[in-house]
Write a structure and sequence with these properties.
With about 425 residues, the protein is α/β, with parallel strands linked by helices. It has 2 domains: about 5-205, Rossmann fold; about 295-430, NAD(P)-binding Rossmann-like Domain (Rossmann fold, 3-Layer(aba) Sandwich). It is built from 14 helices and 13 strands.
């Protein structure tokens, strides 16, 4: 009997390893068609999910309904699964080198549960070759099985957009790949059960890995271009967003906007490709250039604010600034690799007193990750306000509100260009 038939009849089950932004919605979607074991090493997270609560605050209780899923932190239960999906994070370390520890640990866990006839699918973002060169040897060692003879291997890159309530996991075309033609067809058939637009069959696992890593690298490079334009046009006294709007009237102009580039995808994935390229003796020029520009934006913004404070006759060391938004993007709770944290660090280099406000972020997580404290209530004596993340709740603010929380000669930094008002009493600046 094929793996698809075993799963659809619930004679076999799917094991999803890693229940974060990627794994949990995927596991719940699979659970509406198949029997699923959702595994995560964090027992507190497991207890939340058993209570129909998403630790990432992306899904509501309704998303947990009608899903045949068992949540567990006991790896022994994975031995009853037959189709393994690895969806653990793949971050970079402080030296911007890929940290494969989570995916390698997950490979060991799966390898110890692997049986004849099983499938292993990786969804974690990696560099081309990682699945077969780094993860597969661990599976072989732990299981004492042979690829192609005893089990099948595949790679299907995650496509999750945190905060997006329209393009959810089941509504985005899915790339799939397999270690042979049989596994490719089976993997595609299984994912087709939950992915409404269907699947795209990549020619090999390496092609699928490469496709994923360049998706975000391409966005990183395009944003770095408009960020560099913002730096140039600021010196010229030209509004960058007005320039982009004018240029955008041409049919083939790509409409990217300047901004802080963080998160666990765009700000991370390029380093995986760079790492592999350097291993092969090639030193990437364009990719690293784009990374340098985007990583330098927090410093650029902090320096600009210090200059405007001085221009207004204020010593930055005696100034208090409110930073609104600390998550990596709008309307999400995720603070991983937030470039706002880097911006705050740069502001503190000028001895500016910084207050941080964000209704989405967890004060405990911000304190643990960045050693910063969140303020629940804004004061009324700020010298400047920086809107760093365009959360929907901030869109309600108007010029009168900003003047009410700032002192004389107020400065408003609107990083994402969210506000359109033109108030002569406010020094307004946008990236």
């Amino acid at each position: 009997m094929s793996m698809y038939n075993r799963l659809i009849s619930k004679e076999a089950s799917i094991g999803v390893i890693g229940l974060g932004y990627v794994g949990l919605p995927l596991a719940l979607a699979f659970g509406r068609k198949f029997k699923v074991i959702g595994f995560d090493i964090s027992e507190p997270r497991i207890l939340m999910m058993r209570d129909q609560r998403d630790p990432s605050e992306e899904l509501d209780a309704e998303a947990f309904k009608d899903s045949d899923i068992t949540f567990t932190s006991d790896a022994q239960l994975l031995k009853t699964a037959h189709f393994f999906v690895v969806a653990v994070p793949t971050p970079v370390d402080e030296h911007r080198t890929p940290n494969l520890n989570p995916v390698l640990a997950a490979s060991r866990t799966v390898g110890q549960a692997l049986k004849k006839g099983d499938y292993v699918i990786f969804e974690s973002t990696v560099y081309p070759g990682c699945t077969e060169e780094d993860c597969l040897p661990i599976l072989l060692e732990e299981s004492n099985l042979k690829l192609g003879v005893d089990f099948k291997l595949g790679y299907s890159p995650e496509r999750i957009n945190p905060g997006d309530k329209e393009r959810t996991v089941t509504k985005i075309l899915k790339i799939v790949s397999g270690s042979d033609s049989e596994s490719l067809d089976e993997i595609a058939r299984i994912y087709d059960e939950i992915i409404e637009p269907g699947t795209y069959k990549a020619e090999s696992i390496k092609v699928a890995e490469a496709a994923k890593v360049i998706e975000n690298t391409q966005r990183d490079l395009n944003i770095s271009f408009v960020n560099e334009l913002a730096i140039i046009f600021d010196r010229m006294g030209i509004n960058t967003r007005q320039v982009l709007a004018a240029a955008g009237t041409k049919w083939n102009f790509l409409k990217y906007q300047p901004g802080l580039v963080g998160g666990h995808c765009i700000g991370v994935d390029p380093y995986y490709l760079v790492h592999k390229a350097k291993e092969l003796g090639y030193d990437p020029q364009v990719i690293l250039s784009g990374r340098r520009v985007n990583d330098g934006i927090p410093e650029f913004i902090a320096k600009k604010l210090a200059q405007l404070l001085l221009k207004n006759g204020k010593n930055p060391q005696h100034c208090k600034v409110a930073v609104l938004g600390v998550t990596f993007k709008e309307n999400v709770a995720d603070i991983r690799n937030s470039k706002v944290a880097d911006l705050i660090k740069e502001l503190m280099q000028y001895a500016i007193h910084v207050h941080i406000h964000d209704p989405y972020a967890s004060p405990n997580e911000v304190s643990k990750e960045y050693k910063y404290s969140l303020t629940a209530k804004l004061d009324d004596d700020y010298d400047a306000v920086i809107i760093a993340v365009n959360h929907t709740v901030y869109k309600e603010y108007d010029a009168a509100f900003f003047k009410s929380i700032m002192k004389e000669k107020p400065i408003l930094f609107d990083i994402k260009g969210m506000y359109q008002f033109d108030d002569p009493e406010i020094t307004y600046w946008s990236l």
